[in-house]
């Protein structure tokens, strides 16, 4: 006959054996909880950083727009103060002809604002062109560099010499002077009274190149860099015609 004896484990010893396991469970659970909280926090921070970056981008764009608007308004003030005597008013460029062979600008002023054909259009730096088409609320400017544009020019100062400048797309002019005119690279050309369209003395451009004279040439031809880059013009002054 086999007798089985069970040894009774004292309660204290049982608790002592289980305690380390309990502590391990608590530590493990605590680590899991901390890891989860860390993950949540990192995601929240990443979300906040993304939101702040978007807000910063928006603020930067607004600042750039405001900076451009301030620059535009300063230009308007300059136009008003320097060209007020003969100015009909200030207009905004609302469209530019996309053709690389033409240079024409659409303005947001028209016949209702007193705009008429052949009125000169300028900015403080110089001549832009003249009005060639007018509707009730809009007008078209034929810019100096358009191939159909012509303007009488002379050397700035008292050096004289009359010539006619014509547009050369996309961004230059050419002018012909008498062979005897001492025009040279760097000379500034301004409007003269030829044609009776433009007031005298408005800057047209600077002589960039003087072409060689042939033995039979009676005129001296020059290439002109215009005083005004019509591609970046935003506001212009429309002058009363002569």
Automatic annotation (TrEMBL):
Coiled coil, from the record: 49-76
Positions of the Rod shape-determining protein MreC beta-barrel core domain: 93-239
Source organism, top-level taxon: Bacteria
One Pfam family of this chain: MreC
Signal sequence region: none
Keywords assigned: Cell shape, Coiled coil
A cellular component term, taken from the record's GO annotations: plasma membrane
Annotated Gene3D superfamilies: Rod shape-determining protein MreC, domain 1 (2.40.10.340), Rod shape-determining protein MreC, domain 2 (2.40.10.350)
UniProt-listed InterPro entries: Cell/Rod_1, Cell/Rod_MreC_2, MreC, MreC_beta-barrel_core
Single GO BP term: regulation of cell shape
Similarity-based family: Belongs to the MreC family.
Protein name according to UniProt: Cell shape-determining protein MreC
